[in-house]
Amino acid sequence: MRKLLTSLVVLLLVTCVAVYALWTGKRPASYYLSDLRIQTDAIQGERGDRGNLLGIQPELFAADYQSVQRLHLKLAGYLRRAREQGLLNDKTVVVLPEHIGTWLWAVGEKKEFYEATERKEAEQWLALSNPLQFASGLIGAQGRDRLEDAYLRMKAQEMAEQYQHLFGGLAREFGITLVAGSIVLPNPSLVQGELRPGRGPLYNISVVFGSNGRPLAQPQRQHFLNHATRRYVEPAGDAPFNIVDTPAGRLGVLIGTDSWYPASYAQLREQNVQLLAVPASASGPGRWQRPWRGFRSSMPPAQITLQPGEVTEGQAWQRLIPGDQPLASLAVFMGGRFWNEPNEGQSFVRRDEHTSQVSEGRGARLINLWL
């Protein structure tokens, strides 16, 4: 009798494991009507032969990341609209927002993942649907927040390949220079022209792709992290900024809060940068209009006199990015919502102390500066 009960228990366990394995492998296709509304909000300068800086503030949701093909269709739709308006040429530098590549960890998941109401719930579905990948990510996690580290690390190889294929492909398809927002990967680098994750800490990086679809320089790492990501992302430290020669001029990329620090601009001036791209993010309900919380770091720059609460978050972004150097600055934020986290930044362009900002409201935005 005991042997029979043992055999039944073993059979039940084997059956449960087999059913669970079968469930994790199923990724049924689902239908999703994406919102492709886009409007041109701000155009500075006069059309000429020097090229232009073009920011695309996309409106994205978790369901847009169900597949790379679906995300490509949406971003290509924005670029086609820009081309119809005469905003794309062989000297155009297009800038996308921070973390547009990081969200590639949401590709190819089960419908329950996209239907979740909160990000924590979605992450639980992610771990449950990918047990081996999640376990591997958790074992390799190095950040103080091991769970967030694991969620970002577990799909690193696929994310790096998708990031290069998607954004390099868009640059080649439309014949532009593309600042591909940013993506968080473990110790990434370019190896024979291919973006590859390595072993070690997570870094928030950006890659600039040329019109041939190939990276123009090694990934630019973020130097000064915001309060939330410091728990699992490593800063670049004293690594120099990578300057990219584009058809429109010498381009520097400052990721997110790197644009708040005078030390960043000192390096750019030394390297004669003419154009500045700032892929940025500001998530959370009402974040853009709330009082600025300050640098929230152990070493705020001594040159900055702006105090927490003195201005709103949006005003702080514009105050902290100087308008006189480099020649032109474009900060691009993401619109839309990922579960219970709305993206609230409003993209803006600065030149000669003059600032233009996109309007509030639904839909994507184009913001352009003729050089």
Count, helices: 9
Strand order of the largest sheet: 1-20-2-4-5-10
Number of strand elements: 20
Largest sheet: 6 strands, mixed
Poorly predicted runs of 5 or more residues: 7-12, 14-23
H and E order = HEEEHEHHHHHEEEEEEEEEHEHEEEEEE
* Cα gyration radius (Å): 22 Å
Give helix % range: 25-40%
What is the structural class? Answer: alpha/beta
Overall outline: globular
Report the β-strand fraction as a percent range.
Answer: 15-25%
Roughly what is the average pLDDT, rounded to an integer?
A: 88
End-to-end separation: 85 Å
Tell me what you see in this structure.
- The chain is an alpha/beta fold.
- 30% of the residues lie in helices and 22% in strands.
- It has 9 helices and 20 strands.
- The protein has a 6-stranded mixed sheet. Strands 12-13-14-15-18-19 form a 6-stranded mixed sheet, with no helix packed on it. The protein has a 3-stranded mixed sheet with strand order 3-16-17, with no helix packed on it.
- A hairpin with a 2-residue loop joins β12 (244-246) and β13 (249-253).
- α2 runs parallel beside α7 and α4 crosses α5.
- The N and C termini lie far apart (85 Å).
Short description:
By secondary structure, the protein is an alpha/beta fold. Helices cover 30% and strands 22% of the residues. Helix 2 runs parallel beside helix 7 and helix 5 crosses helix 6.
